[in-house]
TrEMBL record:
PANTHER family: MARR FAMILY REGULATORY PROTEIN, TRANSCRIPTIONAL REGULATOR, MARR FAMILY
Chain spans, region Disordered: 152-174
Record domain HTH marR-type: where: 10-145
Protein name per UniProt: MarR family transcriptional regulator
Length: 174
């Protein structure tokens, strides 16, 4: 039997993506570990931090992180025990609740972000000139819209006027 597609550029593309992800994850895990966070803890905190009022409906948080509803519940439970997140009831829908960063959660992000951003710059975005980075980000967004269309669920501020929510400013995220 002869395998004829071993040099297919699609294999190269997915292989390079896997290698880059594995390398980045390994290098960045040390910063998360030093802060007492797992990779998913950090992802949850950063997604909340970049969301309007530093809060997301639990269902949107699950969609953004790719976790099941029970998986995101376990992560939020752990972050809540650590005082980094609280759950808040939705003022307009009794069935929904929000995960909201606490001041301690924001402080944790302030602790981790400087080194994380330095690592991102050194290992990922820094080697790219501005025009390449702009094209690369556009390409990643295009692919993400196919493979994870819910990755930005709840990123827009859709809280009805007068509804109670966590304090914080609306920040754009993409």
């Amino acid at each position: 039997m002869t395998v004829t597609n071993m040099n297919d550029p699609r294999l190269t593309a997915i292989g390079l993506l896997s290698e880059v992800y594995a390398g980045l994850t390994a290098r960045m895990q040390a910063v998360f570990n030093a802060a007492g966070l797992s990779e998913i803890d950090f992802e949850t905190l950063i997604r909340l931090g970049r969301s309007p009022r530093h809060a997301l409906r639990m269902t949107d948080l699950a969609a953004q992180t790719g976790l099941s509803t029970s998986g995101v519940t376990r992560v939020v439970d752990r972050l809540e025990r650590d005082g980094l997140v609280i759950r808040e009831a939705c003022a307009t829908d009794r069935r929904a609740s929000y995960a909201t960063l606490t001041p301690a959660g924001l402080a944790k992000l302030d602790e981790v972000l400087p080194q994380h951003l330095a690592d991102v710059d050194e290992l990922f975005t820094g080697p790219l000139p501005e025009e390449e980075l702009t094209a690369f980000l556009a390409t990643l967004r295009k692919i993400r819209s196919v493979v994870r269309p819910c990755a930005t669920a709840g990123a827009e501020d859709t809280t009805p006027a007068g509804a109670t929510g966590a304090a914080g400013e609306v920040t754009a995220r993409s």
